[in-house]
Specification:
It is a single chain. By secondary structure, this protein is of the alpha+beta class. The protein has 3 domains: 40 residues, no CATH class; 118 residues, Uridine Diphospho-n-acetylenolpyruvylglucosamine Reductase, domain 3 (2-Layer Sandwich); 96 residues, CO dehydrogenase flavoprotein, C-terminal domain (Enolase-like, domain 1), CATH 3.30.390.50. It is built from 8 helices and 14 strands. It has a 5-stranded antiparallel sheet with strand order 4-5-10-6-7. A 4-stranded antiparallel sheet has the order 11-12-13-14, with helices on both faces. Strands 1-3-2 form a 3-stranded parallel sheet, with no helix packed on it. Helix 2 runs antiparallel to helix 5 and helix 7 crosses helix 8. The radius of gyration is 19 Å and the shape is globular. The site of flavin-adenine dinucleotide has 32 residues, from strand 2, helix 4 and strand 10.
Length: 276
């Protein structure tokens, strides 16, 4: 839709061209959400895509993604065969059920910054121990675990004027076996629960719960938990008030499917071979 409160669109080519932040500013990435509803307080857009960041880089220390990397660019990546977690990337991309037009413009950074509980890039980044690089308004840079980036529905850890520059996923996390489960109320609906399990060579297991809850929750186990240990850990980490409540699912349903999908993930990780 037309954003008829916007008076200026800036297209900086470098960090030094970024404007001093003022009330009414908003970063523009893919714009798939920004242009989807009125932005009554927005006066000026700062188009991050004009900065020309390289979308991704594969190196010995892992995978680096620019915040402006699109879902389509991420899904097309050819990753090293030793990275057992590679299928998880496509699974998370496909958890956003948009058309090719959305996939070609929606960005990884926009997904995290929008901070919807059902953000699949939030889930991917949290499950694989990604770290966020954040550009501060004073020219400095800070680093934050992706797990701590989303604070609640539509709330992220950015301070005024800060920009998410990108993410780094370490090689150790990309070498883990993974299992992914997602459910929604309708076949093309938004995720009501999205859970990711990872298994390290040491036997350590982590379960990341998103979409069902207001912010990502991570459970860690020394080995595969039995039903009772799993249920107990979920109950201890997720009080009823933390289950999300919106048109995509009621809290009691989300709590129920979280337990169900967690057990499926535990079983898949326990089966050996590659998990799905
Ligand atoms: C059909 C459809 C289905 C969708 N399904 C889902 C879904 O399942 N899950 C989900 O989470 N979303 C969903 N969305 C919403 C949205 O498309 C995605 O979250 C998308 O990833 C947002 O990315 P974007 O680049 O388009 O962000 P934009 O719309 O450009 O920006 C989103 C917000 O983040 C801010 N922002 C963007 N990038 C940065 C940055 N680098 N630094 C600081 N702030 C920034 C913007 O100012 C804005 O407030 C869906 C949208 C559509 C149209």
């Amino acid at each position: 839709m037309d954003l008829n409160t916007v008076e200026t669109v800036l297209r900086p080519r470098s960090r030094s061209q970024l404007p001093s932040w003022q009330d009414g500013d908003a970063c523009l990435a893919g714009g798939t959400w920004l242009f989807s509803e009125p932005q009554l307080t927005t006066r000026r857009l700062v188009d991050l895509t004009s900065l020309g960041w390289s979308p991704h880089a594969i190196g010995p220390d892992g995978l680096t993604l620019a915040a402006t990397c699109t879902f389509a660019q991420l899904d097309r990546l050819d990753l090293p065969p030793a990275w057992s977690a590679a299928p998880l990337i496509g699974q998370c991309c496909r958890a956003l059920l948009g058309s090719f037009k959305i996939w070609n413009t929606a960005t990884v950074g926009g997904n995290l910054c929008l901070a919807l509980p059902a953000g699949p890039m939030t889930a991917l980044a949290a499950a694989l121990d990604a770290r966020c690089t954040i550009w501060s308004a004073d020219g400095a840079e800070r680093d934050l675990p992706a797990m701590d980036f989303v604070l609640g529905p539509r709330r992220n850890a950015l301070r005024p004027g800060e920009i998410l520059r990108g993410l780094h996923i370490p090689t150790e996390a990309l070498m883990r076996r993974t299992a992914f489960r997602r459910i929604s109320l309708s076949p093309a609906g938004r995720s009501g629960a999205l859970l990711i399990g990872t298994l390290e060579a040491s036997g350590a297991v982590a379960l990341t719960v998103t979409a069902a809850v207001r912010r990502p929750i991570r459970l860690a186990f020394d080995g595969l938990p039995d039903d009772a240990a799993l249920a107990q850990a979920i109950a201890a980490a997720i009080p009823d008030a933390l289950y999300h409540d919106d048109v995509h699912g009621r809290p009691d349903w989300r709590r129920h499917v979280t337990g169900l999908l967690a057990r499926e993930i535990r079983d898949a990780l326990g089966e050996g071979g590659s998990c799905i």
